[in-house]
């Protein structure tokens, strides 16, 4: 998530505007460029580009340097970091608030601002896939239901509105208007769980049990991985979920849109195996028990298996 706070001095009154951008590690740089206002359209001499907050996204050097255009920037994250990378933490208007030991970025933010917030505990449960409280369960279901029902700009709007309601009163999650959405979402999960049972590929590589599952659309990773713990081939040391998606790359000679397939790769484990190094093989990142990567040229299950065979084979 990227938050841009800009200030304008209008009629001697200070108006604060916070813009929220939901993004992904592969799109964080392009999202940052979108957040920067068109300075050619601003006539106010006292205009300040304001503050930037980036939350729950792995640090990228290009984005870090580009964000220096803001008066100040804080980057909050809890993902594992490559210590071989050199980050310009000495830049005066940039502050990196990174804690790989934290269970969620929310915890990092709450600790930084010294906030005793219930959302921190809830985020820890959800982010570590260890949901125990009813509030955490309800919030995860609502977010999943919204993500299923909407897409594009409408999805981002709905997520922002839900976050605003949640910030005002956590009891808003018990609003009955969410019940039909959650019911639809749970039915969808049941269908995907059945698909997972029938289509998961099981492989053994040097005593490591590998599960590979492919989807052509979005899928709730946590739910599917938890469900597959009961599969006859489980537990899987590595559960690799491949979600194939498409993006437009232009039009052909007949003026029809051309699409290109890319692959979102998610690694999870039933046996506490480290997933981060696997994700890094595909230029990804994440946490020790949960890694992910995006392969813009697409990836087949055969090529994925070849890479994992090399990774797990004795040197």
Order of helices and strands: EEHEHEEHHHHHEEHEEHEEH
Helical content class: 25-40%
Q: Beta-sheet strand percentage?
A: 25-35%
> What structural category arises from helix and sheet content?
alpha/beta
What's the N-to-C terminus distance? 40 Å
Give the number of helices: 10
Number of strands: 11
Unreliable residue runs: 8-15
Largest sheet: 6 strands, mixed
Number of domains: 3
Tell me the radius of gyration.
Answer: 21 Å
Q: What's the average pLDDT?
A: 86
Large-scale geometry: globular
Order of strands across the widest beta sheet?
6-7-8-9-11-10
SSE inventory with pairings:
Layout (H helix, E strand, L loop, with lengths): L1 E9 L2 E9 L6 H8 L12 E8 L5 H6 L5 E6 L16 E5 L6 H8 L5 H10 L6 H16 L2 H17 L10 H21 L1 E5 L2 E8 L5 H7 L10 E14 L5 E12 L7 H5 L4 E2 L4 E5 L5 H12 L3
Parallel strand pairs: 3-4, 4-5, 7-8
Antiparallel strand pairs: 1-2, 1-3, 6-7, 8-9, 9-11, 10-11
Architecture overview:
- The protein has 3 domains: 2-127, no CATH class; 129-198, no CATH class; 200-312, Diaminopimelate Epimerase, Chain A, domain 1, CATH 3.10.310.
- The protein is globular, with a radius of gyration of 21 Å.
- The chain is built from 10 helices and 11 strands.
- With 315 residues, the protein is α/β, with parallel strands linked by helices.
- Helix 4 (118-127) crosses helix 5 (134-149), helix 5 runs antiparallel to helix 6 (152-168) and helix 5 (134-149) crosses helix 7 (179-199).
- The strands form 2 sheets. The chain has a 6-stranded mixed sheet with strand order 6-7-8-9-11-10. The chain has a 5-stranded mixed sheet with strand order 2-1-3-4-5, sandwiched between helices.
């Amino acid at each position: 998530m990227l938050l841009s706070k800009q200030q304008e001095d209008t009629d001697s009154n200070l108006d604060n505007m916070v813009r929220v951008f939901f993004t992904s590690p592969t799109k964080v740089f392009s999202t940052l460029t979108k957040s920067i206002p068109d300075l050619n359209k601003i006539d106010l001499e006292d205009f300040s580009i304001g503050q930037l907050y980036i939350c729950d996204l792995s640090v990228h050097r290009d984005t870090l340097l580009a964000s220096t255009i803001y008066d100040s920037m804080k980057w909050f994250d809890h993902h594992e970091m490559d210590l071989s990378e050199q980050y310009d933490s000495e830049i005066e208007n940039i502050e990196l608030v990174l804690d790989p030991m934290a269970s969620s970025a929310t915890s990092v933010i709450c600790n930084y601002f010294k906030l005793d917030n219930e959302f921190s505990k809830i985020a820890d449960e959800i982010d570590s896939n260890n949901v125990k409280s009813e509030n955490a369960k309800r919030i995860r279901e609502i977010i999943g239901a919204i993500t299923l029902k909407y897409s594009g700009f409408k999805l981002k709007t709905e997520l922002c509105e839900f976050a605003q309601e949640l910030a005002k009163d956590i009891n808003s999650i018990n609003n009955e208007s969410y019940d039909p959405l959650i019911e639809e979402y749970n039915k969808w999960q049941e269908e995907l769980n059945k698909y997972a049972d029938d289509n998961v590929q099981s492989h053994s590589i040097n005593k490591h049990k590998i599960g590979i599952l492919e989807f052509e659309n979005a899928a709730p990773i946590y739910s599917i991985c938890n469900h597959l713990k009961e599969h006859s081939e489980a537990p899987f040391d590595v559960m690799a979920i491949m979600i194939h998606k498409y993006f437009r790359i232009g039009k052909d000679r007949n003026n029809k849109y051309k699409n290109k397939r890319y692959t979102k790769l998610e690694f999870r484990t039933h046996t506490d195996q480290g997933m981060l190094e696997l994700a890094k093989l595909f230029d990804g990142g994440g946490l020790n028990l949960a890694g992910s990567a995006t392969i813009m040229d697409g990836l087949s299950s055969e090529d994925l298996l070849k890479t994992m065979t090399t990774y797990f084979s004795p040197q």
